[in-house]
């Protein structure tokens, strides 16, 4: 029984590795957070999968996991994370891209593009030490408390945020952190309209 946790491109399909193509083509089951995106990826890579594809996300995790375990017992499976990037990284709308690792199942990974590392690389911020904070709370008071807890964090911090909440989050960061703390906002990474803005939180809009 083998579970392959596969990283997929974060935007540019050309970033897909040959090994990713091989694993997706050979998998008995491809469990994807967004099956439409994975189907587009398969088409772009000219892959005709030999197995079936099922949706697997936070909303159906409890129901779908036993079915996937049965499939693993019968063969092998590939779990594909089609949005941001490296295996087991959080994605919008989910708490985690990682299924539970059952006993007796061999787990391996296909490494690939990482939204976190890509953003760090183009941010012009220090990368010798950094931490990943994921998504901040949506409610203003809870977000402010979380940022207050991070006020003295010396490392470069990486956050994910939805486009429609970015301005409010940057304003909250400007209130929570020192005025001269540098920041960068990165969007559409690896895509045609990639954009990076640097400055202090309010200036990085």
Comma- or semicolon-separated keywords:
single chain; 205 residues; alpha/beta; Cobalt-precorrin-4 Transmethylase, domain 1; Methyltransferase, Cobalt-precorrin-4 Transmethylase, Domain 2; 2 domains; two-stranded parallel sheet; 31% helix; 22% strand
What does this structure look like?
The chain has helices at 18-26, 35-44, 61-74, 115-123, 140-149, 166-176; strands at 2-7, 29-32, 52-55, 76-81, 106-110, 130-135, 156-160, 183-187, 195-199. By secondary structure, it is of the alpha/beta class. The protein has 2 domains: 2-110, Tetrapyrrole methylase, N-terminal domain (Cobalt-precorrin-4 Transmethylase, domain 1); 115-199, Methyltransferase, Cobalt-precorrin-4 Transmethylase, Domain 2. A 5-stranded parallel sheet has the order 3-2-4-1-5, with helices on both faces. A two-stranded parallel sheet has the order 6-7.
Describe how the helices and strands are arranged:
Elements: E1 2-7, H1 18-26, E2 29-32, H2 35-44, E3 52-55, H3 61-74, E4 76-81, E5 106-110, H4 115-123, E6 130-135, H5 140-149, E7 156-160, H6 166-176, E8 183-187, E9 195-199
Helix pairs in contact: 5-6
